[in-house]
Amino acid sequence: MPxxxxxxxxxxxxxxxxxxxxxxxxxxxxxxxxIPIIGTNGQxxxxxFFHVPMWICMYTMFTIxxxxxxxxxxxxxxxxxxxxxxxxxxxxxxxxLGFATGSLWATYTWGGTLTSDPKQMCTAxxxxxxxxxxxxxxxxxxxxxxxxxxxxxxxxAFALLIPLxxxxxxxxxxxxPGSATTPGFASNDTEGTMKMVLYPAFIGWTLLSxxxxxxxxRYKKLxxxxxxx
Amino acid sequence: MINxxxxxxxxxxxxxxxxLANAQQQDTESGAVNEFFxxxxxxxxxxxxxxxxxxxxxxxxxxxxxxxxKLEQREKTxx
Lengths: 229, 79
What we know:
The structure holds two protein chains of two kinds.
Chain A: H1 3-12, H2 14-32, H3 48-75, H4 78-109, H5 118-139, H6 143-171, H7 192-223
Chain B: H1 2-26, H2 32-77
């Protein structure tokens, strides 16, 4: 391969390299910087750099998914259905990772793995709704019918995701940061040194999730040649 | 061809790591690297573990990316 083509090819993948570099920085700095030790959290506050980005990835993927479902319903282009379902699958994967890391964290700070905490319960419901979306898709064999019904269900799921994971936990008492009675992720509530790692973590993990999403879409493009001509 | 070269490199890297580990076993008490990994309650050992796991996942993703690219190229030339 001539060198100028190789350079062009590398230039197209710069954001993947950025994701890798940022995440290596996050892993090393996330464990070694000094953090404030508060209450029962101890050193487990470092989970902020790995647990919260999972949810950012999930929101990014579900937003991509619902936007593509809306475009599908206005244009009936089956490509959009493939984009929407791939994003929902990757988003559910990151949601499960976020839920698992949160449950492990809760075991040692809240005193229970599955507690009756509103944030945890509502999030479990939201992820289950998206799992229902994936199961619903498997249950319909007609490709056009599947695309339409699942697009409508996807909009319903997103309309429930926001109140379930973002609004209700902020209105009631919860042990989770960001509820009615606990400080959340606001500019004054997070130590400056932690922000130096937290923001790169958001960017790095989101880029990684987008990378995984593009891989899924490219695989589907090869598999479903009759849709992608 | 590339896959063969890649697996050769991996095997060599693993060999080097095991040889290095063997060599280090003989002088576990000295060396700046060992001192560093033993400081702060050996937290850097786990940092290393996570970096290795992450790099493994990244290598897997890069390999998958290249395989899909190759398939895409084949589709483009003779659909």
